[in-house]
Design brief:
Layout lengths: L5 H7 L4 H10 L11 E2 L6 E12 L16 H8 L4 E6 L7 E3 L1 H9 L4 E4 L2 E2 L2 H5 L5 E3 L11 E6 L3 E3 L2 E3 L4 E4 L4 E4 L4 H23 L13 H14 L2
Parallel strand pairs: 2-3, 3-5, 4-6, 5-7
Antiparallel strand pairs: 1-7, 2-8, 2-11, 9-10, 11-12
Helix pairs in contact: 1-6, 2-6
Length: 238
């Protein structure tokens, strides 16, 4: 997908959501970590541009099994049109009492080159989804079909997921702790700063493990800290 450079993607693959939230906080963004989500299986970072699906509450005259045969069904249309390199993000209104998607749709997204699937609701067929190579995040398992609670109404519109506003094209990063949304226009600078912060925090962790106090070290208020960091960085090729 355009808008996410290969370099930025590779940089974000190597930083944590915790570090990203700090970098974004420094820019005034406080509400960018999707709340209540859990990864189905630990693994490498998930990085991609948001491609969204929005649900509203189901209505019995509209949401029946025959509706899946309709090629304009927003859920099925979204899955079939999601571009390679995207993260498929579903606004389920935080309702995990019915599934947002199951293993067949998740497998189809993986086959289309999707980089991950995220919902603030629940997935069904979670053992099978966990076995996919594609990362997946949800609130909890939910076996009932989406039709019992969710009506899909919009594809690639602004949504809310996990209490966070997500616009199509925003950069979605997930790790084993959770999922962060980075506004697209600041993704490059956020990625670069997060990478630098990661190097410094690796240095701090090594010093702490060797018995150093955090005072003057983290944050580096002692003038000698940055000199020691520079020497450590050179010695470790960082």
């Amino acid at each position: 997908m355009s808008g996410l450079t290969k370099q930025t993607q590779e940089t974000l693959m190597a930083v944590s959501t915790a570090t990203l939230t700090t970098v974004l906080f420094k820019r005034g963004l406080r509400n960018i970590f999707l709340q209540g989500l859990h990864r189905l299986r630990p693994g490498a970072n998930m990085v991609g541009m948001a491609y969204t699906l929005r649900y509203i509450p189901a209505r019995e005259d509209l949401d029946h099994l025959d509706s899946f045969a309709d090629r304009t069904n927003a859920q099925r249309k979204g899955v079939e049109e999601c571009p390679a390199g995207a993260v498929f993000v579903i606004d389920s209104r935080g309702d995990a009492s019915a599934a947002s998607a199951g293993c067949i749709l998740a497998a189809r997204l993986q086959a289309r080159g999707c980089r991950g699937i995220v919902t603030d609701g629940g997935f069904r067929d979670t053992p099978e989804i966990a076995d996919l190579d594609m990362p997946s995040f949800h609130a909890r398992p939910s076996a009932p079909t989406n039709l019992t609670k969710h009506h899909a109404v919009a594809v690639n519109d602004p949504i809310a997921c996990g209490g966070v506003s997500i616009f199509p094209g925003d950069i979605i990063v997930g790790d084993n702790e959770g999922v962060v949304c980075i506004p697209q226009h600041m993704a490059n600078e956020v990625a670069d700063e997060a990478a630098e912060m990661t190097v410094f925090e690796d240095f701090v962790m090594e010093m702490v493990q060797q018995g150093a106090s955090t005072f003057g070290l983290y944050p580096p208020t002692d003038p000698s800290t940055m000199d020691r960091f520079k020497a450590w960085r050179q010695a470790n090729g960082r």
